[in-house]
Amino acid sequence: MKVSVSVVLLLLCYVNGIKAVTVESCPLATGSSLQTAVEATVTLTCMTDESIDPSNQELQWFRNGVRVNLAEENRMYRSSLCVQPVTKEDNGVVFTCQLKGDTSVNNSIEFDVQYPPDLNDTKEVSVGETSAVVLSCDVRANPPVTLIWKKDGEVLDLATGSYKTTNNGITAELSIPKAKRDVHQGTYVCEVTSPVYGITSRTFTVTVKDKVLGFPLGPTIAGVVVVVCTVALALISRMDKIIKCCKRN
User: How far apart are CA 30 and CA 24, in angstroms?
Assistant: First the structure.
């Protein structure tokens, strides 16, 4: 029992001797994680405790390791940061407050920024027969979303129609290497489901036209006409010389 009491007293002394800075947030964080949303305003406040030498209470803020410039009056004892507005790029960012004179005395908070994918629109897509077409959707979101492709109101069977899909968590693509009117023309929907924001989608109206010639016919004809006219004008300008040469002969 005596040993246990001694250990407890020793631990209490150790805890009381710890120097610390505290970071508070509005809205309130859960532990070291702060959940917020795009366009919101977040205020972070850093404070020193009484165990720190009053002459060594200058504070510094860092955003992902990069120092944040602070006004001189916002550095001592208590320092505040205002993040307004919160953006997608703030997701996963760590804000750290530390003592300037002792960098081991610090505290951090990480942003968990929630936002839906940027969808809910319609695009018109026109493609020539046998040409390639790519339908693209921005699926970047927090929390992550699930995705399905639909064609003419039905879930698309990716095993048919020579479709290819990719999804890197930022952009999802449906590719058709060789479009065929009787197979690929129609209305496609990129439908994503978020556990927070529900269902959003992008609609593509795909029209497959007759095969486009491999070369531009109009510009080619115009080029031929220009060449012929140039040659004709050159011959006309030299006609007098040609006639004189013939007479001498």
Answer: 10
pLDDT in tens, 72-116: 999 999 999 999 999 999 999 999 999 999 999 999 999 999 999
Task: Provide the whole-model pTM.
Answer: 0.71
Q: Tell the burial category of 36 from Cβ atoms under 10 Å away from its Cβ (0-12, 13-18, 19+).
A: buried
Q: Which CATH superfamily is domain 121-209 in?
A: Immunoglobulins (2.60.40.10)
Q: How far apart are CA 170 and CA 168, in angstroms?
A: 5
User: Identity (one letter) of the amino acid at 88?
Assistant: K
Domain boundaries 17-114, corresponding CATH code: 2.60.40.10
Mean pLDDT of 154-183: 93
CA 184 to chain centre: 29
Residue 146, CA distances (Å) to 59, 103, 141, 164 in order: 43, 42, 10, 17
Parse the chain into domains and list their residue ranges. Answer: 17-114, 121-209
Contacts of 191 (CB under 8 A, 6+ apart): 147, 148, 149, 150, 199, 200, 201
Average pLDDT rounded to a whole number, residues 186-211: 96
